[in-house]
Amino acid sequence: MSTSKDMVPCFVGAHQPHHGLSLKDSGERTIHQPVRFTSKAILAELPAMPAEGITKTPPEAVASNSSDLGVETPPPSCPDIFDSGSPATAKGQTACAKALEGVGGSGSKKGQLPLAVTPVRTLKRKISSISPSGIATNKGVAEHDPANHEIKRLREEKGLKWEQIAEVLNKRLIEQGKSPAFTHNGVYSRYTRNAPRIAALEAWPSGQDEMLIRAYHEVRAEMAEELWHRVSDKIVQAGGERTSPGACAVRYNSL
């Protein structure tokens, strides 16, 4: 083990607390440099430091050095449109549907529109927005993307290969002045992820979706009205005075 006589100071950066050596720079200002001690045997194996000091290695040199050492330099990351969800707002989904107007097709083998632009979706958003007890809906799920419906239709109804589907979609995007962004891998990935979910949504009978949405909000309204009637009854059961359900609601919110 090296003794203290074999140890020499080694500078480790000026951002640490300034305990260590005090040096003079060219302007005769005192610079406090923190130090740690390193074995002379280790320092002897290092290349000599240039007279002007340590220089910062440019990024391109780091990349080449990494390849020389057999270390793969990861490529720059870029967003993958196939992993991104559809627009998260109704306005964004409408814009998306218009942008892919030529891509949308019939939306499914049943001749239905993609759910992103159906009257059912519009009804659900409208009721949720005007109802105080409405629930925010998930407008960005992949099964509501018109492009995913078109991929499913071209694969199952037309029997096209993945390369052919990508070519069809890219051709339509180019005709609309858009950049071709579909690849056979991306089309395949979209299909495997979203086709089962789209099929599950298509299993409902015609008109059942409208019934579901209306029934849900009607029941919530009935439950909200019944809630304060039951609260009023509970007050009487506890020995209090009879109070109207509306007065109970107002009083509760003011507490």
TrEMBL record:
Q: Where is this region: Disordered?
A: 52-73
Return the protein name.
Answer: Uncharacterized protein
Q: Which organism is it from?
A: Glutinoglossum americanum
